[in-house]
Write a structure and sequence with these properties.
The structure holds two protein chains of two kinds. Chain A contains three helices and 17 strands. By secondary structure, chain A is α+β, with helices and mostly antiparallel strands. Classes of the chains: A alpha+beta, B mainly alpha.
Chain lengths: ~240, ~150
């Protein structure tokens, strides 16, 4: 075999090994690992937020700046017959609660040390979704979860204790709630007077027709000790279609 | 009357004969079968990977291991054909890639890819060059075929 051929063969082998080694070394890190790095909460976890739920449970989450958008689109069933003087359109009921309240002036501290004020804490009691809800994040395109039950999908409630869902949302979030003089035709923001009325009428069941919440943080607690969800609780997803796209 | 092939004489040209002879010589001068099994094993590892190529490109080693290791197996098979002088080194690396694929990517294509790769890589490692058959040489008279 000639020296030229030998050199070529050696070059092929060298290039092949180099290609494999370089590929192994330069392949980009996964987003999950990058997210972990982004969520380092500073030395001694100094950048952890301190949050208190409506039920009095104190939490210290490490928050990224990713926003989860929960969207339940409205579906109109008739053009008249609901709301004030029954002159507003009617919409399909897509979620239910047994109480709702709002606390303004919430400030969140993020993992990178920055803070965001002017947020609202919304608390839903016995939150149930009966039609399609979509959860998407601002952390990356193409990660959307759709929840489509054929009857109420709910968390817990099996042993009779109350479940609270606390959401820290931005001021431009809206819900469509049929409650007192409000109808689903109104896009109610957290700074709307409905929430004050709703706080006064605690334990009034209400049905909602839609929502578009920009959630910075969400947590579910129970009325039990320390808000822990344990024991005979369950996640009820009756004939629910869960899709991720 | 239809002439039989015997009547064409010793200088007959049957289409494809040269190609077959060339391929036979090519096959006998490099670790062909070992490379073939290693390449098939690599393709199986890539095919039975859990992620599409688009997801693997954005997902770090966990998602891309099937493509990297399966691709390395195919690459080493091609290099074994192109560089038979280094068959021992390339065969060893091929076996390493196949074993790594077992850990890194769906049990190396649900065992099939890794097993094919280990067998192929071992065949490359243990390969010895055969002497090309000379034209007209009698079968069995081509010298030692290790």
């Amino acid at each position: 075999m000639t020296g030229t051929t030998r050199r070529w063969q050696r070059a092929w082998v060298f290039l092949a090994v180099l290609a494999v080694v370089v590929t192994l070394g330069l392949w980009p890190d996964s987003p999950r690992e990058a997210a972990h790095a982004a969520q380092a909460c500073g030395a001694g976890d100094a950048n952890r937020a301190t949050l208190t739920t409506k039920g009095g449970v104190t939490l210290h989450p490490c928050l990224s700046k990713v926003t989860t958008v929960m969207n339940i689109p409205r579906t109109q069933t008739s053009s008249l017959g609901c709301g004030t003087l029954f002159l507003q359109p009617c919409y399909q009921t897509k979620w239910q609660i047994t109480a709702v309240s709002k606390t303004s002036g919430q400030t969140l501290k993020y993992a990178d040390g920055s803070t965001e004020s002017g947020l609202y804490r919304l608390t839903f009691q016995q939150f149930q979704v009966s039609s399609s809800a979509t959860l998407s994040t601002t952390g990356g395109a193409g990660y959307t979860t759709t929840l489509a039950p054929d009857s109420a999908a709910k968390l817990g409630n099996a042993s009779g204790q109350t479940i609270y869902t606390d959401l820290w949302v931005t001021a431009d979030s809206t819900i469509n709630l049929s409650f007192l003089t409000f109808s689903c035709n109104d896009n109610v923001r957290p700074d709307n007077g409905l929430w004050t009325l709703a706080d006064l009428f605690i334990d009034v069941s209400a049905g909602g027709c839609g929502m578009n919440l920009k959630i910075r943080y969400a947590v579910t607690t129970s009325s039990g000790a320390n808000g822990e969800i344990s024991g005979a609780y369950s996640v009820n997803l009756p004939n629910t279609l869960l899709t991720v796209s | 009357m239809i002439a039989s092939t015997d009547q064409l004489g010793p200088n007959r040209r049957i289409p494809g004969t040269e190609a077959v002879r060339w391929f036979r010589a090519y096959r006998r001068t490099r670790p062909f079968w070992g490379g073939l099994w290693l390449a098939i094993g690599g393709l199986v590892v890539m095919k039975l990977n859990s992620y599409s190529l688009g997801m693997a490109l954005t997902g770090g080693f966990n998602r891309s291991a099937g493509y990297i290791l399966g691709g390395a197996m195919v690459l080493f098979a091609i290099v074994a054909w192109a560089s038979p002088l280094y068959a021992r080194l390339v065969g060893f690396l091929g076996v390493l890639a196949a074993m790594a694929a077992f850990v890194g990517s769906n049990f190396g294509g649900f065992l099939v890819g890794s097993i094919l790769g280990i067998i192929g890589g071992s065949m490359i490692f243990g390969w010895g060059e055969l002497r090309p058959r000379r034209r007209g040489a009698r079968r069995g008279a081509a010298g030692p075929e290790a």
